[in-house]
Amino acid sequence: MAKTRCFAGLDIGTTKICAFIAEMNGGPEPRVLGYGQAGSEGLRRGVVVDLEKTVASIEAAIDVAEQMAGFPVREVVAGIAGDHIRSINSRGVVAVSRRDHEITAQDVSRALEQAKAMAIPMDREIIHAITQQFIVDDQDGVRDPLGMTGVRLEADLHIITGAVTAAKNIVKSINRAGLKVSDLVLQPLASGHSTLEMDEKNMGVVLIDIGGGTTDVALFHEGSIRHTAILPLGGASVTNDIAIGLRTPFDRAEELKIQYGSALASRVDPAETIEVPGVGGREFKTISRQVLATMIEPRMEEIFQLALKEVRRNAYFEMVGAGVVLTGGTALLRESAELCGEIFQMPVRVGIPRGVIDLPDAASDPRFSTGVGLLLHAIREEGVELPQRGGPAFAGIKQWFADLVS
Predict the structure, then answer these.
(1) Is residue 180 situated within a structural domain?
(2) What is the domain count for the chain?
(3) 265 within a domain of the structure (yes/no)
(4) What burial letters (b/e) apply to 218-227, b meaning 16+ CB within 10 Å?
(5) How far does the chain reach from its first CA to its final CA, in angstroms?
(6) Do 236 and 333 meet the contact criterion of CB atoms below 8 Å apart?
(7) CATH code where residue 102 lies
(8) pTM here?
(9) Domain assignment of residue 123, given as a range
(10) How far is Cα 165 from Cα 209, in angstroms, rounded to an integer?
(11) pLDDT average per 10 residues of sequence, the chain (406 residues)
């Protein structure tokens, strides 16, 4: 019988922290054994601002997941985001070393190292160096050049960097909760694992993951990541606009957004009214639901316009054929996909987490795309073959991570 192996993913977000535990016992897909979530009180825009509160939230989410699974976990793959994240595409060029011009593993390694040899500020480190393609004597689109013949080998990498201190604080929070971190993964890459199909990545697709504090943007083409960006706006920005505009507490503004909000004011019946509680025990007031939508629409439009501006910086945007996949908690806001489609002038679908079995209904919506994606990443990094939904696994910089946690 196949040996059962267990894995855990931990999504540390601005508004919530969620943990997933799954097993591989010989089946084609991982089986979810437990999940837990807790409110996140110690982060701001993906960055730890209160260590003790973050630790308490992690412990609460892990405890619930462990109780559901029936056993404790010791190691997790965790997500990282925040507006400190930067990305750049880099190319390394080397001459093929053998006299018969056959490309060896050493040539490939030299080309990759050459692409990574770029000036990085002291306060930043490489989080991911993702191989996009190889070029052999001007022949591009090569996935594996080993054994091919050529005189020049080029390697294209997508390099993602982050602030050293931000990453260390994430790791420290998890360690204080009694867990070891096996890898840190950029959140939009994790979300891509659980929401994107391989044909979308090949045709070209834009992934927009709207979380509480940040919006993560990624562009894929020909099966590889081409561009990533983190925008310092998210669902909490929309909630804050409602709270200020209607002079209502933040938690009640969040409830109004979820229950009655819409990203397109023109789709809302102006005759429909809602009750809005006041601050500090003040009286309720009645407003049109369309008024609420007029407060939401400008911020949602700003988020999508900024996302469009980001991906337009990359030449591959003109070759996006599969449109946009919208995920994250704010993707549940009514008419979000329609507004996104109007701005991008592309088809838009809402991405939900897939690639696992026995995922509870309560966790089967866009809010949990990153958490499930981290779980899938943990499994792939252990060399377990999964059905080709999410495309090639992206490589982490293991030595960097070893130095980070030491």
Answers:
(1) no
(2) 1
(3) no
(4) bbbbbbbbbb
(5) 37
(6) no
(7) 3.30.1490.110
(8) 0.88
(9) 86-163
(10) 24
(11) 76 92 85 93 87 95 95 93 87 92 94 88 87 92 91 94 91 94 92 94 96 93 91 94 93 93 94 88 87 96 97 92 95 96 96 92 93 92 64 40 53
